[in-house]
Specification:
globular, alpha+beta
Amino acid sequence: MRRMLGVAVVLVIVGYVLGAPARMPAGAQGARTVTAALYADAISLDPEDTNDNLSLSIEREVYDGLLGFTPEMKIRPELATSWEASKDARVFTFHLRRGVKFHDGTPFNAEAVKLNFDRARDSTHKLKKYSLYEMIASVDAVDDATVRFTLRAPFGAMLYNFAHPGSRIISPAAIKQGESYIARHPVGTGPFKFVSWAPGQEVVLERNPDYWESGQPKVDRIVFKLVPEDASRVAMLLSGDAQFVFPVPGVQVDAVSKASGVSVQRRWSIYAYYVALNTQHVPFNTVAVRQALNYAVDKPALIKVVLRGTARPLDAPITPGVTGYSPVQAGGWPYDVAKAKALLSEGGFPNGFTSTLWLGVQTETQRVGEALQQMLSKVGVTLRLTPMEAGTLSAIRFKPFNENQSQMNLSGWSPSTGDADWGLRPHFDTESWPPTLFNLAFYKNPKVDALLHDALATADQPRRDRDYAEAMRTIWNDAPWIFLYNSQILAGERSSVTGVYALPDGTVDLRQASLTGK
């Protein structure tokens, strides 16, 4: 506890040195302010052009979608009051709320919905969420409060795509200002309005007094503090400088749980953590080498030592809780140094090799990188760690193949639609190589491509499940990733705040935030 208080004091001092005090004066905060300390800076506040969960979390407070997710990731209505889907899952009709306005006063109606999804499905914009909408053939404003989507082919997971946090509705007036404007000036219909973004420091939102949902929002202001260092986030929680922090690292869970006035939210995520191996370059173009690295990593030890038991080894490329999940190998790839060395020799590297691992700057992420470095050294692999801020890392990870210098990437992914399609296709389809989507391994297997595409072509869930199960078995054996672990969601909250959640997809939701006694 003494060490934590010391960190808090350092935070206050550093805040004033930088010209931004760690704690805002009470008058500046307002009567009902919730401060949430999150792990990184936002990258863009354009929901249709966002890859990272932190940016999606901030966007969720400013925007509404046609549909959204409950804290348990069940579909709920937002700007749509009801909807119908055709039996062949090709036509989706939504009935919209009347009388809703965007924060800039622009009316919300079917034409606004059409404009948004026409933009999202237009490949010339090169938006990062294009893959969620490319199957849409047409969007028709039937009348002011009815919009109809017609798909090119059946797509059984389409309602989940509409509920995805990237499927938010942007003001048409903001869209006319261009994409660089949207990225920095979000304008939606949500419970909170955008006020300011100080890069690397904070994002400030204020209450939307004209919000359509009766009684919401219940607080006047939300302040997102952008705090990559784990101990600093926890210190803010313990000192009261933040009412909610995410994530709480495994090493701090016991301390937080025992502290007065705070608690830890725990739930299994749908996050899969992995190291993507660039399969198009030596030495990772050899299956034996990739399999060797999976044997060389002691996942249970990594989970016990670094994550303090708050995870479980991956047993498939996606996790329990995702529609279409089925386990491939119980317990994950076993730890076997001798087998790893034999496979390295078989792959042409009996003495190992040297490679570079790209990773984020968060404390826990770097500790995972250090553990991998130590474990791989036991089989002769020398790992150079290159930590980078989120924006820089994203920019170089998603360069096209002929410009991409990646070797190994430590990353995590939650399929925010809750469906196997968004867990697998962005990472393992040949068409998903950067910059289109997130196939950081530049993995290519025609059999997997065919299975993923076949699963998209039907609304028959059992058939989709069979396709995904076979695809996952093939991917697992090809080992384009070092398959690491599925984490628990660990967030800290003070007893003075309710209605704030960390969702299984790794995003957070403060739309229902309330402060007790205020």
